[in-house]
User: What shape does this take?
Amino acid sequence: METWKNTAIIACVNQTGEPLTVIEQCRVDRINRTLKQSDGSDRGRRFVLGNGARVDQIDARSFILSGSHEVLIRCLAIDGDQSQADYSSSA
Assistant: This one.
């Protein structure tokens, strides 16, 4: 059984402005050590929504929901407001 540890909570919005939370997780062993692949790569990391739906990272500020291909954009904090996202460069 795989064990996953939450490492980051990322506030995002979809293109209609609905807020969604992306959770970054890393695979850990029984004593809570982060596991990496034998080649040292970071494939022991994943992104999911709170309901467990898989999310793939596009770049540092955007994600895509596996299956539906819905794009999520990381919120930009503006004076403490986490509800702003920048879609200006999204096509």
Summary: Strands lie at 3-14, 19-28, 45-49, 54-59, 62-65, 71-74, 76-78, 81-84. Residues 79-83, 87-91 have pLDDT under 50 and may be disordered. The CA atoms of residues 6 and 55 lie 14 Å apart.
